[in-house]
Amino acid sequence: MIDTDLIVNLLRHHGHTVEAVVPVANDAGEYEFSIDGTLLSLAETRQLLEHEDARKRASRLSHHPSSQLSKPVGPH
Of 70 and 8, which is predicted with more confidence? Predict the structure, then answer.
């Protein structure tokens, strides 16, 4: 069973507006999510969350102090 409440909470935590979760009648266990005015399948919704998580992780790594060690500091 798919935990649609968890997905909705994650989307809202990421700043999205979730208007509706719609079960797809001819595909048992499949859902569509109305997110920020766009209807996305479950697979597209997962891709959106994965993309945002990857972007957030990359942003944190680029601001981490250890990432500054590899950058040259002034002329040598």
Answer: 8
Q: Is the pTM of this model over 0.85?
A: no
Q: Is residue 8 part of a domain?
A: yes
32 within 8 A of 24, measured Cβ to Cβ:
yes
The token pair that represents 70 in the structure block: 């590899």
User: Which structural domain range is residue 25 located in?
Assistant: 4-51
Q: Which two tokens stand for residue 69?
A: 């060690």
CA dihedral 43, 40, 19, 49 (to 10 degrees): 50
Round to whole Å and give the CA distance between 60 and 29: 35
Phi, psi of 21 (to 5 degrees): -120, 120
Sheet with 18-23, strands from edge to edge, namely 18-23, 31-35, 38-41
3-state SS, residue 41? strand
